[in-house]
Amino acid sequence: MAGIYHIKSISELHRMLGCSPPRHPSISLVKFLDMKLNEKDIDFKGATVDFYVISMKNSSGQIKYGKGYYDFEEGTMLFAAPNQIMYPSHLSSEVLDSEGWSLFVHPDLLYGTDLGKKMGEYSFFSYDTDEALHLSEIEKIKILSCVNNIVEEYNQNIDAHSKHLIVSNLELLLNYCRRFYDRQFLTRGKQNKSVVVRIERLLIDYFNSEKPLNLGLPTVKYCAEEIGLSPNYLSDLLKKETGKNTKEHIDYYLLERGKNLLLSSDQNISQVAYDLGFEDPKSFSKLFKKKVGVTPNDFRSSVN
């Protein structure tokens, strides 16, 4: 079996899926029922694509996407940014034979548009599979309305207004998805509060241990892996619950530990910085001044 296969264009993907050529070179909707993918003919482990993928699954089934297998529920949406690994060889027959669709959007379509500049704001393109978006019936109708408008527009003859209208409907689609994710954070309040408690305990234990000396400063990625979430999802969840993202939580507990060391020991500023995990004491002093309002030395002197 070959390694990871790289798909550069939407046309190439259509050929691989056994679909007719796309009506538009930079955006296309493919229904799962239209795929003629023969699993026996696939000789690669997975594939990366040069475009965005937005998928909805409307009935039960299983797909390998990202880190593992995921059981779809009715009205489940998944998102992938360019160069994320997809696993077509693990699409089950249940998925291939069920209702659902994938919208493929090449970055070429977004060049020179306001949406192109804002794509990084849609952090759900980097969420893990088990952080998928689950829609109500009313929410599904909103999403399908946007998708149908996009398809209707690119199926017409291209004119001077086509790109603007397609991109506008795509942005509306993404904005609805962001709204529905915000709703999902709110409706999972109990689970989210548990994550907040876990991240706080994780950081308190980290800075009270020898880990800063041995491992350096904790990163957003480290915290996310310890909690079992993707970095973007964890930051978005914490922001919704506490008003601070993961990096801000790290900085808070880092500085609380730093204040404690400054007041409870005679260590110089450099040694305090090293004990906290900094490689450069100047970085500690800069962060301390930015967040606390005074330098570490001034803080120590003012309290003493």
TrEMBL record:
The HTH araC/xylS-type domain, residue ranges: 197-302
Domain of life: Bacteria
TM stretches of this protein: none
Pfam families from the UniProt entry: HTH_18
Sample GO molecular function, one term: DNA-binding transcription factor activity
SMART domains for this protein: HTH_ARAC (SM00342)
Keywords assigned by UniProt, alphabetized: DNA-binding, Transcription, Transcription regulation
Protein name: AraC-like DNA-binding protein
Native species: Aureibacter tunicatorum
